Structure formats: C-alpha cells, structure tokens
C-alpha cells in the first residue's frame, strides 16, 4: 500500500467521523496542532520511528502529547490508533489529505493568489466574490506577494492556474517574436 493510499484511508475515516459529529473544523485544528508538534521536534519523530522503544512506551508518550494539546477524545483515539498501527510517520500526509477531503466535503476551495504588489481588502474581496460565483463554493484565499510577476495576478486552484501576470504576457510576446 502506498503512502498516499494509506494517508487517504486514515484521513477519509476521520473526515467521515468528523462530518457525522459536525466537528470537521475542530478536527482540522487539533490535527494541525499535533502535526506541528511532530514537525517542530525531530527527536519526537525519531522516538516513534525507533524500534528500541516499546509500543507501551510510545503509547505513554502519545497519551502525554494528546493530554498536553487538549485534543478531543476522538482525535486522541485517532492518534493512539496511529501509534498502535505504527503509522505516526505518516501524520503530515494524513493531515494534508484530511484538509483536502474536509474542504471537499464542506464545499470550500483554498486558492493561492500570487500578486506582484499587496492587495487591499476590497481587491481580495472582489477576487473572492468572483471565484465564489464561478465555482459555487466558499472561497478561503491565501495571498502571497511575488515580485517576480512584475505585475498582474496568478490564481492557483488545485491543478488549475489563471495567469494574467505581466511576466507571462511578456513571455508570450517573446515566443511570438522568436517564431517570427
């Protein structure tokens, strides 16, 4: 079983449970917090990857982490399941997959908007409104300043990009001129 398939299986189960309980967003926050703990501490990741630590020791460590992070009982049980199945190493993939599946289930898209200059709140709201109208979904944009674009905007939604940057337009003109 590939890592992607494995992550999807675990994430899908948690999304189904979260949607039944109406806790998709809470689970997202709790999983992100747990993932942050593991991402920030290489020693912690090493403990769960080290066969010298017994399953009982790993369970106690995870139990302490769950208590410290004040996770819900369901997410706490999920984290303990990852320990029992020796799947803690896949946590970041599971969290990423969970985010995608939860957004899909909630009807949310999270486009990445790259611009050459900072956008004001009105411009972001106009882009958000246009994307909501076009997609029929709730939009939660993330804006990044990318001065290499020279001007214009690039909106990335999943695998689809809407590119109206000056950089791309200049590249098109260059291609036309080179072809004659």
Short structural summary:
With 180 residues, the chain is of the alpha/beta class. It folds into 2 domains: 3-105, N-terminal domain of the delta subunit of the F1F0-ATP synthase (Peroxidase, domain 1), CATH 1.10.520; 108-179, no CATH class.
Structural overview:
- There is one protein chain.
- The protein has helices at 3-21, 24-40, 42-49, 55-69, 73-84, 91-106, 121-135, 166-179; strands at residues 108-109, 112-115, 138-139, 142-145, 153-157, 160-163.
- By secondary structure, it is of the alpha/beta class.
- Helix 2 packs antiparallel against helix 6 and helix 4 (55-69) runs antiparallel to helix 5.
- The protein has two domains: 3-105, Orthogonal Bundle (Peroxidase, domain 1), CATH 1.10.520.20; 108-179, no CATH class.
- The protein has a four-stranded mixed β-sheet, with no helix packed on it.
- It is 64% helix and 12% strand.
Summing up helix and strand content along with how strands pair, one would put the structural category as alpha/beta
- The structural domain count equals 2
Main sheet?
4 strands, mixed
Beta-strand level of the residues, as a percent range?
5-15%
In the CATH scheme, the class of the largest domain would be: Mainly Alpha
Uncertain stretches of 5 or more adjacent residues: none
Continuous helix count: 8
Mean pLDDT: 94
How many β-strand stretches?
Answer: 6
Overall CATH architecture of the largest domain: Orthogonal Bundle
Q: Gap between N and C termini, in Å?
A: 51 Å
Radius of gyration: 21 Å
**Order of strands across the main sheet:** 4-2-5-6
Shape: elongated
CATH fold call of the largest domain? Peroxidase, domain 1
SSE order, one letter for each helix or strand: HHHHHHEEHEEEEH
Find the CATH superfamily of the largest domain: N-terminal domain of the delta subunit of the F1F0-ATP synthase
- The proportion of residues forming helix, as a percent range, comes to 55-70%
């Amino acid at each position: 079983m590939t890592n992607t398939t494995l992550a999807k299986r675990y994430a899908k189960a948690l999304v189904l449970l979260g949607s039944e309980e109406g806790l998709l967003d809470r689970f997202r926050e709790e999983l992100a917090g747990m993932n942050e703990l593991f991402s920030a501490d290489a020693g912690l990741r090493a403990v769960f990857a080290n066969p010298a630590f017994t399953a009982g020791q790993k369970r106690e460590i995870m139990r302490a982490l769950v208590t410290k992070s004040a996770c819900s009982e369901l997410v706490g049980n999920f984290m303990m399941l990852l320990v029992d199945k020796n799947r803690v190493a896949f946590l970041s993939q599971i969290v990423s997959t969970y985010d995608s599946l939860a957004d899909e289930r909630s009807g949310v898209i999270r486009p990445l908007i790259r611009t050459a200059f900072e956008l004001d709140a009105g411009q972001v709201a106009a882009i958000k409104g246009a994307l909501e109208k076009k997609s029929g979904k709730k939009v939660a944009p993330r804006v990044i300043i990318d001065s290499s674009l020279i001007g214009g905007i690039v909106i990335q939604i999943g695998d689809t990009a809407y590119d109206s940057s000056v950089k791309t337009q200049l590249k098109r003109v260059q291609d036309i001129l080179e072809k004659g």
